[in-house]
Amino acid sequence: MTRHLIVRREAEADITNAAVWYESHEPNLGLEFISEVRAAIQRALNDPYAFPRLRAVPEVRRVLASRFPYRVFFILRTDSLVVFAVIHAARHDRIWKDRIVEKQT
Prior knowledge:
The chain is of the alpha+beta class. It has helices at 9-25, 29-46, 94-104; strands at residues 4-7, 53-55, 60-64, 70-76, 80-88. It has a 5-stranded mixed sheet. A hairpin with a 3-residue loop joins strand 4 (70-76) and strand 5 (80-88). Helix 1 runs antiparallel to helix 2 (29-46). The N and C termini lie far apart (30 Å).
């Protein structure tokens, strides 16, 4: 089954902010970060059930970026995969949980 990819504005901001930070520390590192996040998202699109389910309703799963310590959180729907947060591994899970609550109200 082919799912549509939706990247929410908040997740795009997460990616952009991290890429800018990496780029400020080393040239091209920001682009490498974006490439790694894209690869993680592609892995999720290819086989979303291979990644741990963190919540049942809505069905939230997480995929890790390979080279960078970032977690990509997504909601799995019948016809789409919705990326709603890209968060550094050192940050608290409250961030993605708060985003789920905000979208449901």
